[in-house]
Amino acid sequence: xxxxxxxxxxxxxxxxxxxxxxxxxxWKLHTETWLxxxxxxxxxxxxxxxxxxxxxxxxxxxxxEAPNPxxxxxxxxxxxxxxxxxxxxxxxxxxxVYGLQTAQExxxxxxxxxxxxxxxxxxxxxxxxxSVSKQGKKLAEYLxxxxxxxxxxxxxxxxxxENGKIFGVLNGLEGSISLTIEKNPLNPYYILSTHVxxxxxxxxxxxxx
Length: 209
What we know:
The protein is mostly helical. It has two domains: 1-116, no CATH class; 132-209, no CATH class. It is 66% helix and 6% strand. It has helices at 2-11, 24-37, 42-45, 69-87, 91-96, 103-131, 139-155, 162-171, 175-183, 188-207; strands at 54-59, 62-67. It has a two-stranded antiparallel ribbon. A hairpin with a 2-residue loop joins strand 1 (54-59) and strand 2 (62-67). Helix 6 runs antiparallel to helix 7 and helix 8 (162-171) packs across helix 10 (188-207). The longest helix has 29 residues, at 103-131. This is BnaC06g00350D protein. It comes from Brassica napus (Rape). It holds the Pfam family Retrotran_gag_2.
């Protein structure tokens, strides 16, 4: 499995642990990027179909069949991709693809299993980021909650930019603080609040991110 481990290191998939509904979209993005860089993406998209076992060879007026020289390379590349997949699948996921013969079959099987769940999870996390509130929480606890949601969104392949994280923090503050910040931009409270909040946001999302 040395080859598979080297692939997961290149992809950075080892940090994702096993493929699951929570990280499938990110795994898919990383995998597609690597396969494309190796000119192997066609193995899972159908752009590089299984070659015919034989080819016609013409010798003068005679036509005969000979082994297709492209078949061995295609099988070797496909097995390389299969090894990469299997090295990052949980036992449950492995059972779901047991008996499948090609990388494309495994790819489509995983998509069928995880795509709908991952898309639903991403929408749920986006709603949570928009509705998260500081109400009744200490500021440090609230910032940690926002960071957790952003990290979970990142794991689905939906990166949240820094300004999006900060907006999420400001959006969830109590009404009185939000109103002060929104309506009184020249108020010293606004300057102090935004300065402190932005500093805290950058600290939480940069140092611990």
